[in-house]
Amino acid sequence: MKISVQEGPFDAGAELDAFSHGRHEVGAIVSFTGIVRDRDGGLVRMEIEHYPGMTEKAIAEIAEQAKARWQLADLLVIHRHGALPLGQPIMMVATAAAHRRAAFDAAEYLMDYLKSRAPFWKKEVTRTGEHWVEATPEDEDALSRW
Questions:
Q1: Which residues contact 36 (CB under 8 A, 6 or more apart)?
Q2: Which pLDDT value is given to residue 142?
Q3: Which CATH architecture has domain 2-135?
Q4: In this predicted model, what pLDDT tens digit does every residue of 82-126 receive, in sequence order?
Q5: I need a labelling partner for 31 at 20 to 30 A (CA). Which of 54, 72, 99, 109 fits?
Q6: What's the confidence (pLDDT) of residue 5?
Q7: How far apart are the C-alpha atoms of 140 and 115, rounded to whole Å?
Q8: Euclidean distance between CA atoms 42 and 49, whole angstroms
Q9: Which family, according to the similarity comment (predicted)?
Q10: Which residues of 101-123 are buried (b: 16+ CB within 10 A; e: fewer)?
Q11: From CA 11, how far away is CA 20, in angstroms rounded?
Q12: Phi, psi at residue 134, to the nearest 5°?
């Protein structure tokens, strides 16, 4: 299990290659990479803050729960912090399991957790100002599935 909270960029393809290399015991590997996007046409960058130590511990706890619940062979969570320009990867999740449903469900669970509950604070910086991003009702609904 690899969990990384980092400021620098990562190569999702290289991470997935390393994660999946030599895995003969699994029938499914699922990955997701979140990208900084401009929903409203004015985003300059996203700034993500976190508390070192606390963030990694919280992600590790939820990752262990996912690993046990879906009997994962392995999982990967990468989440960036700092100033991220448009088009840059923010986070990545990968799960490896014997069966695809377990791999998909575990990946979605981790993504939902990271989006709404992981201790990150996200600020959108636009051409006209800046504002903190809050969880939406849709984000909360997604978590209620689990």
A1: 43, 45, 46, 84, 85, 86, 87, 88, 89, 90
A2: 80
A3: Alpha-Beta Complex (3.90)
A4: 999 999 999 999 999 999 999 999 999 999 999 888 999 999 999
A5: 54
A6: 98
A7: 10
A8: 21
A9: Belongs to the MoaE family.
A10: ebbbbbbbbbbbbbbbebebebe
A11: 14
A12: -110, 155
Rounded CA separation 100/146 (Å): 18
Contact 105, 97 (CB under 8 A): no
> Domain extents for the chain?
2-135
The sheet carrying 28-35 orders its strands as: 2-6, 74-80, 89-97, 28-35
* Distance of alpha carbon 56 from alpha carbon 63, whole angstroms: 10
Residue 69: per-residue pLDDT: 98
End-to-end alpha carbon distance in the chain: 21
Give the integer Cα–Cα distance in Å for 62 and 87. Answer: 27
**Hunting for tokens 């910086």 — which residue is that?**
125
pLDDT by residue (tens digit) across 11-67? 999 999 999 999 999 999 999 999 999 988 899 999 999 999 999 999 999 999 999
